[in-house]
Each structure stands twice: as structure tokens, then as C-alpha cells.
Amino acid sequence: MSVSKYFVKEAVKKTEIEEYLAQELKRAGYSRVELTKTPLGTRVVVYAARPGLVIGRRGQSIRDLTQVLEQKFGIENPQISVAAIESPELDPKVVASQITTSLQKGVHFRRAAYWAVQRVLDAGALGVEVTIRGKLTTERSRCEKYRAGYLSRVGDAVLKQLKTAVFYTQLKQGMFGVKVKILPPATEFPDRPSIKEVAPAPEVMTPEAKVEEVPTSEVEVSSEIASDKAT
To answer: In this structure, what DSSP letter does residue 27 have?
Structure first.
């Protein structure tokens, strides 16, 4: 097998694992997975908003997931560990998964979208956009977008720092698609300059501004002489 075919095969395998975990761990707020090969096997790190659901009771879910990765995807000796996400509201995959779950429970799509947008903004994001596509109100498919904050469309900063996720769900009306774009709080743009506060420079006394200090004893003596003359 050539080097190019090897990397293509590994990329396809990781994509399949991503799709499988996103479907199986939807309730746990699945975000992403990291695969690292070690001399002892393959280290698998699963990031989720609710790690307890990934682990399961007495670690049963982890054992089942290990067996699936080893038999279905051919991963050698997978060693799975679960890590919690610091800010689930800033992860587009978690937000999109929550919206699709709300739609499956019968929540109106506008209410689910507004709720998600408000939570993302409260978490400190610079901007957020939620797009819901499907048979929303009629038999004809269409889409609605809900946008808030600062969300640029083009530019190098957007290509590198804008986070995007797409989820699909099957409802009675048909297939619905949910797309979420989030701009993290630490994003910097060239068209939004930042003002830095500079500490004031220390004052420099010029020779002309210096005043000679008169000793206190001389001032007391001069005042005594003036009082004697007055008497």
C-alpha cells in the first residue's frame, strides 16, 4: 500500500468513527474524538458534554464501545478515555445536537433556535448563526436563519476560527437539517482594532523646576529674629 492510499484509508476510517460516535453518543453531547497510535495500541479520547453517559453504569458503555471499535473498525487494542468539554455552549456540534433533540421532542423550531442562540451568546461567543432547513410550515421545503452578534462571512480569520457543524434528523414532516456557526470569544479580526492602555510616563523634573529646600532650623531662627525686631 502506498503512502497516499494509507493516509486516505486512515482519514476515511476516522470519518466513519466520527459519524458512528455522533449518532450513538448524541444524548451525551458528543463533540469530537482523537485517535493516537501508541506502542501499546491506539489511544482514543472522546470529548463530550456529559461524560457520565459515555462511561455508563460501572463502565459498561466504555466496554461496549471498545468492542465495537476493535471489531467493526479494526482498531488495535483501543484504550478509551473520556474528557469533558469546558464550554458546551461554544461547541457547534453540541448545540446542533441539542436543537435536533428538541425538534424530535416536538419543540417548535423557532423556539429551539432562539433558545440555542441565546445560550451561545450568554457563553461569550462573538457571533452565532443557526440555520434550520426542511418542511417547516408547509409541504414545500425551505430554510430559516437566526443570527446574532458579530459574524463575518469571508476572510482568513473566518476560515481558520469559525466553527461549523451540521446535523440531520428525521421527523414526521420529513428530513430536517440543522447548521450551526459559532465565532469563539478569542477571535481577532483586522477590521476590529483593539485599543491598548499604556501606562503614563513618569514625570521628569527639569533643573529650573527644582526648588531648593530650606532647613527647618534656619526657618525657625529667622522667625525668632523677626519677632525680636518687632518688639
So the answer is: T
Q: Which residue type is seen at 85?
A: I
> Which pLDDT belongs to residue 180?
93
170 lies in which domain range?
89-183
Residues 52, 99: one domain?
A: no
- Cite the DSSP H helix spans in the chain: 3-24, 51-55, 60-71, 92-104, 109-122, 156-161, 216-230
**Signed CA dihedral, 132, 133, 137, 142: sign only:** positive
Residues of the chain with pLDDT under 70: 1, 191-194, 204-231
Residues 142/136, Cβ–Cβ less than 8 Å: yes
- Output the CA torsion 69→51→62→66 (10° steps): 20
C-alpha cell at 101: 433533540
Pair 95, 168 in one domain = yes
> C-alpha grid cell for residue 5?
492510499
Distance of alpha carbon 181 from its chain centroid, rounded? 11
Clarify whether residues 29 and 80 are in a common domain: yes
Q: Do 33 and 46 contact (CB within 8 A), yes or no?
A: yes
Give the pLDDT confidence score for residue 56 in this predicted structure: 83
- Answer yes or no: is 111 within a domain: yes
